[in-house]
Amino acid sequence: MTKILLHFSLKGQSAMEYLMTYGWAILIVAVILAALYQLGFFSGTNFITTSCIAESGFTCQKPVMNITGYVQINLGQISNGTMTISGVGCSNSTSQPYAYYTPPSTSFQPEQLMQVSFQCPGIGNKGSLGSAFRGYVWIQYSVGSQTGLVSQVAVLNAVATTSASLGPTPNIYCIAGYNNNPSWTNLVYAAPVSGTTSGPWVPQPASSYYPITDGLNSCVVSATDIYCIGGLVDGSTATAAVYAAPIFGSSVGSWSAQTTGNYPFTVDSGSCAISGSYIYCVGGLLTSSGPNTNAVEVAQVSGTTVGQWVTQTAGNYPTGTDGGSCVVSGSDIYCIGGQAVYGGGVTNQIYFAPVSGTSVGRWTAETGANNYPTTISQFPCSISGSNVYCIAGYNGIAYTNAVYSAPISGASIGPWTVQAPYPVGISYYSSDSCVASGSVIYCIGGYNGGWTSQIYSAPLSAGTVGTWVAGTHNYPTELGYDSCVG
Prior knowledge:
Number of strands: 44
CATH superfamily of the largest domain: Kelch-type beta propeller
Oligomer: single chain
Shape: globular
Number of helices: 1
Strand content: 35-45%
């Protein structure tokens, strides 16, 4: 009996020694695994390697993705005959993409490799090195008499390995306006931009004309779509209409009239800005002859659908306003100048407010040197990097060629710095006739005693505007009251 008890005692002692020896190691491993789980190491995306596996009849080589979700691949086809490709896109499900990108060439021959770029959903400006994507590559195409075909051509797994640009050549898009030949127009043009060069301008087909002859609307652009709000129909009647159209390189698709996404009231000469999937609109004229409003409206967008507008209450603008210029940077919106009273009251006052989704917080008035250096209205401002650039305009007495820039960060703007003057004193009668694309700003048309088709561009660098260069591809018509975005 004693031997049996001794035997069990030795076994228990051995088990206890085992636990004491290895227990701490097991506990440490468990803590490490829990920490890795919390950090998302086992989320699945950490085990994705970049690959592009083509469907039968196609090849897909050398995929690379940047931190904004743009992917570049060498796409080939083997035995499908001569194809005409109208678009290449990406989706994260087996459903078609909501946006397609125009390839560099539409003719696609057997055994040919074509380098194409497109943006995949779900990453956008939130991406970073190591961001991962799983999904599918699609093409829109025709073969012989068969048109309107769509095929899924590859399975894509990609990890962001670069911050370099992989997207298509940037473009400027100009919508409707007053062309002085003979009057208000619904024409739409696009132009590729590179360095300080823009154009040539590409007239859009009749199927992509703006649905109404309109000007003084406010348009904004996302990576894949244009949205235009309100405006003055035929120069006489303010409208609440809102339209959206997809963009693919130098092509603009058909415009979609919104229903639930129509503006809550008729408006022209307001200023709208986009941040992520939200459009923020401030002020404007209720009719062609006033008065102006202090209303602030917000809507969420998805593809070519604009959601119902949310009227702000605490976030109403401090005064009625029209002819000002609003921009969004980070989680704040800034509105510069404008007319506090229609037909007069041009101001240099700047207000800013926090934004979050469909909510705009209370506005704060800037003071001192952070306000605009002169009274100003009917002028465009654009953001590039951490600076805002404002061009020319009407100062309440005359058209000016003054150009200013200011650093913009958090709930802070200014002080303002005088920059190289615009070549002529000019008013744009629009808050979006100058477009900052990359490190260059492009300004289109305007009024300086007569309407002009002239385009000027200037390089931008850390708050400095370089020498203005006259474009060689001017706008196809004289232009004003328009909206240009890019």
